[in-house]
TrEMBL record:
Occurrences of domain CSD (ranges): 84-145
Region of interest: Disordered: 1-37
GO-annotated cellular components: cytosol
GO molecular function: nucleic acid binding
Pfam families from the UniProt entry: CSD
Classification lineage: Bacteria, Pseudomonadati, Bacteroidota, Cytophagia, Cytophagales
Protein name per Swiss-Prot or TrEMBL: Cold shock domain-containing protein
Biased composition range(s): Basic and acidic residues: 1-11, 19-28
PANTHER family per UniProt: COLD SHOCK DOMAIN CONTAINING PROTEINS
Length: 146
């Protein structure tokens, strides 16, 4: 003797099988058989866009492997030369011991630590300073109040 729930489960199972069979038949009917490798290929043009046409060999450029730069650019001698800069203290927290100086020429914000100061600093003070490069970026050193 079958219960109502067993009959319902059997109906659902048969419906799933039927749906699966219909999907399989649709896939077979709509499958694009006979495509050649050339029709399935995709190419990248000189601008980096994907196309279906092969690239033009006349537009090929030779690239020197030594010119390819990976990582951080090498510093030149001009970058390493320390020069005295002027700026304004935009933020300084004496209790934590650090702040930031806005350079007058480049308008970039440069980190300053309390150990690099010649005297006490406050916000909006005009200062002269030199910079050093650290792994985290530019740091101000030899900071003097103007």
């Amino acid at each position: 003797m079958e219960t109502f729930s067993k009959k319902e489960k059997e109906k659902q199972r048969q419906k799933r099988q039927k749906d699966k069979q219909e999907k399989r038949e649709n896939r077979k009917a709509n499958a694009q058989k006979g495509q050649s490798l050339d029709q399935m290929m995709a190419y990248v043009d000189e601008n980096g866009n994907i196309t279906s046409t092969p690239p033009d060999p006349t537009k090929k450029r030779q690239i020197n492997e030594a010119d390819i730069q990976i990582g951080v650019p090498k510093q030149t001698e001009a970058d390493a030369q320390p020069t005295t800069r002027q700026g304004v203290v935009t933020f300084f927290n004496a209790s934590k011991g650090y702040g930031f100086i806005r350079d007058k020429q480049t308008q970039e914000s440069i980190f300053v630590h309390i150990n690099a100061l010649a005297g006490p600093l406050n916000e909006n003070d005009k200062v002269s300073f030199m910079t050093t490069m650290t792994p985290k970026g530019l740091n101000a050193v030899n900071v003097e109040k103007l």
